[in-house]
Amino acid sequence: MYIVSIDEEVCTGCNSCTEGCPARILGFNGEKAFVEGDETECMGCESCISVCPSGAVSITEM
Ligand code: SF4
Ligand code: SF4
């Protein structure tokens, strides 16, 4: 199981991470990305991490 989190203080709001999430759990509120679904539904694909220019996304394997 993986848990994804986004550090709002670090996110620059580029919105690069949301579209590529196969679990569709990343949302964008116009300023920041956030986890809008069940954070434990993260598949651990690291797509969001690879596209994030600021290192705001982190994944923890439980
Ligand atoms: S690691 Fe993959 S499944 Fe998990 S939040 Fe990021 S893009 Fe979505
Ligand atoms: S890719 Fe990174 S900086 Fe861009 S919206 Fe997502 S978390 Fe924020």
UniProtKB/TrEMBL annotation:
The keyword Iron applies. SUPFAM superfamilies: 4Fe-4S ferredoxins (SSF54862). InterPro entries: 4Fe4S_Fe-S-bd, 4Fe4S_Fe_S_CS, Fe-S_Ferredoxin. Keywords: 4Fe-4S, Electron transport, Iron, Iron-sulfur, Metal-binding, Repeat, Transport. Residues 2-31, 33-62 form the 4Fe-4S ferredoxin-type domain. GO terms for molecular function: 4 iron, 4 sulfur cluster binding; metal ion binding. Pfam families: Fer4_10 (PF13237). The keyword Transport applies. This is 4Fe-4S ferredoxin-type iron-sulfur binding domain profile.
